[in-house]
Design a protein that fits this description.
Layout (H helix, E strand, L loop, with lengths): L25 E4 L4 E2 L2 E9 L2 E5 L10 E5 L3 E9 L20 E8 L8 E20 L4 E10 L1 E5 L8 H23 L3
Antiparallel strand pairs: 1-2, 1-7, 3-6, 4-5, 6-9, 7-8, 8-9, 8-10
Length: 190
């Protein structure tokens, strides 16, 4: 008996899902606003675990204990350097240990017609560890890279967001109307 839900190669159809894409990644650095245009983003969070065993045994059983150190993590952000992209980078909090901050990283789909939201990661106790600048002649690009140490990582699943092309067009039209009103007011004599 043939199954109706098989394709021509006698395979079951796969379930397709909307992808979470890197171009939709939003990085909120403290309360200093969004940090956009990242081309590379990596988060690593770990704790060292040490196993200790007893010498000999107690009642015929060997005892083992696991000790975990305090977790720590690293965020690495690589960006394409463009006009104005480093404006405000060095004024963000977290450039010294007395000014530690929180960084939120939200993953969403970069497609305008996709209403999919991914997880939200919050890194607490963030301090910049290093900054580097690299130029590559073949691709004629200049990248700046920031490495940030943090102490705690939390994860939150996000609800689907409602983002559509029509909503973006309406928001653009409203922003253009406000800009036109400001330009008209500026052109009036005092």
């Amino acid at each position: 008996m043939a199954l109706n839900n098989q394709d021509v190669f006698k395979r079951f159809p796969v379930h397709t899902a909307s992808p979470i894409t890197a171009d939709g990644c939003i990085i909120r650095w403290g309360n200093a606003g969004d940090f956009l245009a990242a081309t590379n983003l990596a988060i690593q969070h770990s704790q060292q675990v040490t196993r200790r065993r007893t010498l000999g045994n107690i009642n015929g059983q060997t005892t083992a204990v696991l000790f975990a150190s305090q977790p720590q993590g690293t965020i690495t952000i690589g960006r394409l350097l463009a006009e104005g992209s480093s404006a405000g980078l060095f004024t963000k909090p977290g450039w010294n240990a007395c000014d530690a901050t929180d960084i939120e990283i939200e993953f969403v789909s970069g497609s305008l017609d996709c209403s999919l939201a991914g997880p939200l990661f919050t890194c607490k106790g963030c301090v910049v560890e290093s900054y580097s600048l690299q130029a590559e002649s073949e691709g004629q690009t200049v990248m700046d890279n920031v490495v940030i140490q943090f102490l705690q990582l939390t994860h939150q699943n996000r609800r689907q967001i409602n983002r559509s092309h029509e909503a973006d067009l309406e928001a653009d039209a409203a922003a253009n109307a406000v800009a036109q009103d400001l330009a008209d007011d500026a052109s009036l004599p005092p």
